[in-house]
Amino acid sequence: MSTPTKKPGTAAGKRSRLYWGVPAVLAALVLVVLIAKWLMGLPAGASFVADYPGHSELPAGAPEGFPAWLAWQHFLNAFFLLLIIRTGWQVRTTTRPSGHWTRNNKGLIKTKNPPTKISLELWFHLTLDALWILNGLVFAVLLFATGQWMRIVPTSWDVFPNALSAALQYASLNWPTENGWVNYNALQLLSYFVTVFIAAPLAFITGLRMSSAWPKKATGLNKAYPIEWARAVHFPVMIYFVAFIVVHVFLVLATGALRNLNHMYGVRDDDGWFGFWVFLASVVVMVAAWFLARPIFLRPIASLMGKVSR
Predict the structure, then answer these.
(1) pLDDT tens, 179-212?
(2) CA of 194: how far to CAs of 75, 153, 175, 202, 227, in Å?
(3) DSSP letter, residue 101
């Protein structure tokens, strides 16, 4: 008798891919480190890092440090993003919704056509999206009103060679000097710029296109912006946010955890424990929200905004 082959879609096939995939990723990482160290050891590589140390000079008048509002915004963004990613995955993978929700058409929002019935998971996802967007608008206004935008928006072309230099230093494990209280390195600056001004708007406009709020009878608009495009972009944007969060948290903890946490949560530039305890309290809140985001708790809240049914 012939031995049955492992099909890619089976559990055995998935274990096989994991078995070979993990060593392959580790080998690739080791290769990247070795190549980066080799490049850093070359005269040209050393000269490049000397010319471009990894950070661009900020414009005159750029603020130093972090205001209290930025600490609150950081927590709220993390809070909403965590739950948005969770509910987004639920919407994508749930085959039997835990319930359905229909908007009350007699409130502030009234439409000519009857509201569309959606799953409870999608209702929660859209509600979180709305709160995240509102928080993002407040963030953007404060960002430009206080000059904090200069810390995360490129203002010079040398940000790109400096970002390459910072990436080379990270890859060689000879990490660039961190002083986020004064100035981010160029790679951080570009990643924050992409996250705030590219990824977040993309998440919004693609999510809006897929939502029931989008006008279905707008033939010309729907032809110019097909829903297939939105679907093709929305999920990769979510993957980007997951990758950004993982790398961001890792670097925060690996490049001076206490000082970094004081920057983001304590609004101070020292190595004390205050920021850590505030961060720990925020984690407790997020974990509690994760476990409380269940149908038994969501149904009473959803019923305040519409009709909940099985």
Answers:
(1) 888 899 999 999 999 999 999 999 999 999 888 7
(2) 19, 9, 22, 10, 23
(3) E
